[in-house]
Specification:
By secondary structure, the protein is of the alpha/beta class. Helices cover about 25% and strands about 30% of the residues. A hairpin with a 3-residue loop joins β10 and β11. α1 crosses α2. The chain is globular.
Protein backbone atom coordinates (compact mmCIF):
# COMPACT_ATOMS: atom_id res chain seq x y z
CA UNK A 1 0.00 0.00 0.00
CA UNK A 2 1.12 3.56 -0.66
CA UNK A 3 -0.04 6.38 1.60
CA UNK A 4 0.16 9.80 0.01
CA UNK A 5 0.65 12.95 2.04
CA UNK A 6 -0.10 16.29 0.45
CA UNK A 7 3.12 18.15 -0.29
CA UNK A 8 5.33 15.37 1.11
CA UNK A 9 6.72 11.99 0.17
CA UNK A 10 4.58 8.92 0.58
CA UNK A 11 4.80 6.03 3.01
CA UNK A 12 4.69 2.44 1.83
CA UNK A 13 3.19 -0.33 3.91
CA UNK A 14 5.57 -3.19 3.12
CA UNK A 15 7.66 -3.43 -0.02
CA UNK A 16 7.64 -6.83 -1.68
CA UNK A 17 9.84 -7.58 -4.69
CA UNK A 18 7.09 -6.97 -7.24
CA UNK A 19 5.85 -3.89 -5.41
CA UNK A 20 9.33 -2.39 -5.77
CA UNK A 21 8.94 -2.38 -9.55
CA UNK A 22 5.37 -1.04 -9.39
CA UNK A 23 6.35 1.84 -7.13
CA UNK A 24 9.39 2.64 -9.26
CA UNK A 25 7.22 2.68 -12.41
CA UNK A 26 4.76 5.10 -10.76
CA UNK A 27 7.66 7.46 -10.03
CA UNK A 28 5.85 8.67 -6.90
CA UNK A 29 8.30 9.77 -4.20
CA UNK A 30 8.24 7.96 -0.89
CA UNK A 31 10.47 8.54 2.09
CA UNK A 32 9.36 5.82 4.49
CA UNK A 33 8.19 2.22 4.78
CA UNK A 34 6.20 0.57 7.55
CA UNK A 35 7.06 -3.15 7.80
CA UNK A 36 4.20 -5.42 8.87
CA UNK A 37 6.27 -8.62 9.05
CA UNK A 38 9.52 -10.08 7.80
CA UNK A 39 8.29 -12.49 5.12
CA UNK A 40 10.01 -11.98 1.78
CA UNK A 41 6.78 -11.34 -0.11
CA UNK A 42 6.44 -8.25 2.10
CA UNK A 43 10.07 -7.10 2.42
CA UNK A 44 11.90 -8.47 -0.64
CA UNK A 45 11.74 -5.07 -2.31
CA UNK A 46 13.81 -3.59 0.51
CA UNK A 47 16.79 -5.56 -0.76
CA UNK A 48 16.23 -4.15 -4.24
CA UNK A 49 15.83 -0.67 -2.73
CA UNK A 50 19.12 -1.11 -0.87
CA UNK A 51 20.99 -1.82 -4.09
CA UNK A 52 19.22 1.06 -5.86
CA UNK A 53 20.24 3.45 -3.08
CA UNK A 54 23.69 2.10 -2.22
CA UNK A 55 25.42 4.14 -4.93
CA UNK A 56 23.28 7.27 -4.78
CA UNK A 57 23.35 10.37 -2.63
CA UNK A 58 19.60 10.24 -1.99
CA UNK A 59 18.42 10.67 1.61
CA UNK A 60 17.90 7.66 3.85
CA UNK A 61 14.53 5.91 3.73
CA UNK A 62 12.85 5.70 7.15
CA UNK A 63 11.93 2.14 8.10
CA UNK A 64 9.25 2.00 10.78
CA UNK A 65 9.57 -1.52 12.17
CA UNK A 66 7.72 -2.99 15.16
CA UNK A 67 10.37 -3.67 17.77
CA UNK A 68 9.33 -7.34 18.02
CA UNK A 69 10.46 -8.00 14.45
CA UNK A 70 13.62 -5.86 14.19
CA UNK A 71 15.94 -8.82 14.81
CA UNK A 72 14.08 -11.01 12.29
CA UNK A 73 14.27 -8.26 9.67
CA UNK A 74 18.00 -8.01 10.32
CA UNK A 75 18.38 -11.79 9.93
CA UNK A 76 16.51 -11.88 6.64
CA UNK A 77 17.91 -8.78 4.96
CA UNK A 78 20.94 -7.37 6.68
CA UNK A 79 23.07 -10.34 7.65
CA UNK A 80 23.44 -12.20 4.38
CA UNK A 81 24.22 -10.81 0.97
CA UNK A 82 23.10 -7.23 1.43
CA UNK A 83 26.51 -5.68 1.63
CA UNK A 84 28.54 -4.25 -1.21
CA UNK A 85 32.31 -4.21 -1.28
CA UNK A 86 32.33 -1.20 -3.61
CA UNK A 87 31.99 1.69 -1.20
CA UNK A 88 31.83 -0.62 1.83
CA UNK A 89 28.08 -0.31 2.41
CA UNK A 90 25.91 -2.45 4.65
CA UNK A 91 22.13 -2.77 4.43
CA UNK A 92 21.49 -0.31 7.27
CA UNK A 93 23.65 2.37 5.62
CA UNK A 94 20.75 3.11 3.23
CA UNK A 95 17.96 3.19 5.79
CA UNK A 96 17.05 4.95 9.01
CA UNK A 97 15.70 2.23 11.29
CA UNK A 98 12.96 3.51 13.59
CA UNK A 99 11.82 0.73 15.95
CA UNK A 100 8.21 1.34 16.99
CA UNK A 101 5.95 0.14 19.78
CA UNK A 102 2.19 0.64 19.85
CA UNK A 103 2.30 3.98 18.02
CA UNK A 104 4.61 6.38 16.19
CA UNK A 105 4.45 9.81 14.60
CA UNK A 106 5.11 10.52 10.94
CA UNK A 107 4.59 13.98 9.41
CA UNK A 108 2.55 14.98 12.45
CA UNK A 109 0.16 12.01 12.19
CA UNK A 110 -0.07 9.49 15.02
CA UNK A 111 -0.20 5.95 13.64
CA UNK A 112 -1.29 3.03 15.81
CA UNK A 113 0.47 -0.34 15.59
CA UNK A 114 -1.23 -3.54 16.75
CA UNK A 115 -0.52 -7.29 16.66
CA UNK A 116 -2.29 -9.47 14.12
CA UNK A 117 -2.54 -13.26 13.67
CA UNK A 118 -0.11 -14.49 11.04
CA UNK A 119 1.80 -17.68 11.93
CA UNK A 120 3.25 -16.98 15.40
CA UNK A 121 2.42 -14.39 18.09
CA UNK A 122 4.20 -11.04 17.77
CA UNK A 123 5.40 -11.88 14.26
CA UNK A 124 3.11 -9.56 12.30
CA UNK A 125 1.51 -6.18 12.92
CA UNK A 126 -1.20 -3.96 11.50
CA UNK A 127 -1.27 -0.21 11.08
CA UNK A 128 -4.07 2.27 11.72
CA UNK A 129 -4.55 5.99 11.26
CA UNK A 130 -7.58 6.83 13.42
CA UNK A 131 -10.48 8.17 11.41
CA UNK A 132 -8.80 7.20 8.11
CA UNK A 133 -7.85 3.54 7.67
CA UNK A 134 -6.91 0.23 9.28
CA UNK A 135 -4.44 -2.03 7.46
CA UNK A 136 -4.55 -5.56 8.82
CA UNK A 137 -2.46 -7.25 6.14
CA UNK A 138 -2.58 -10.95 5.36
CA UNK A 139 -3.80 -12.34 8.66
CA UNK A 140 -6.34 -14.60 10.25
CA UNK A 141 -9.52 -12.83 11.42
CA UNK A 142 -8.86 -10.32 14.20
CA UNK A 143 -12.26 -8.97 15.24
CA UNK A 144 -10.99 -7.65 18.57
CA UNK A 145 -8.43 -5.47 16.78
CA UNK A 146 -11.06 -4.16 14.38
CA UNK A 147 -13.27 -3.26 17.34
CA UNK A 148 -10.34 -1.40 18.89
CA UNK A 149 -9.07 0.37 15.75
CA UNK A 150 -11.90 0.64 13.24
CA UNK A 151 -14.79 2.24 15.08
CA UNK A 152 -14.66 5.74 13.60
CA UNK A 153 -15.48 5.15 9.96
CA UNK A 154 -12.04 3.89 8.95
CA UNK A 155 -11.59 2.05 5.66
CA UNK A 156 -10.37 -1.50 6.39
CA UNK A 157 -7.72 -3.07 4.19
CA UNK A 158 -7.58 -6.82 4.78
CA UNK A 159 -5.86 -9.29 2.48
CA UNK A 160 -7.74 -12.53 1.89
CA UNK A 161 -7.43 -15.73 -0.13
CA UNK A 162 -10.28 -17.68 -1.65
CA UNK A 163 -10.11 -20.33 1.09
CA UNK A 164 -8.93 -20.03 4.68
CA UNK A 165 -5.65 -21.51 5.86
CA UNK A 166 -3.70 -21.34 9.15
CA UNK A 167 -2.09 -18.00 8.24
CA UNK A 168 -4.57 -16.17 6.00
CA UNK A 169 -8.24 -15.25 6.04
CA UNK A 170 -10.46 -16.67 3.36
CA UNK A 171 -13.51 -15.10 1.79
CA UNK A 172 -15.67 -17.25 4.11
CA UNK A 173 -13.98 -15.61 7.15
CA UNK A 174 -14.81 -12.13 5.94
Amino acid sequence: ALLRFEGCGGMLIDLGSEAFFSVRAMDYPFDSVFVTHAHLDHIGGLERLFFARAFSDLPLIKLYVPVDIVFRLHQVLASSGTQVAEGGKNFWDCFQLIPVGRHFYHLGFRFNVFPVRHHYPDEAFGLALPGKFVFTGDTRPIPEQLVAHAGRGEVIFHDATMTSNPSHSGVDDL
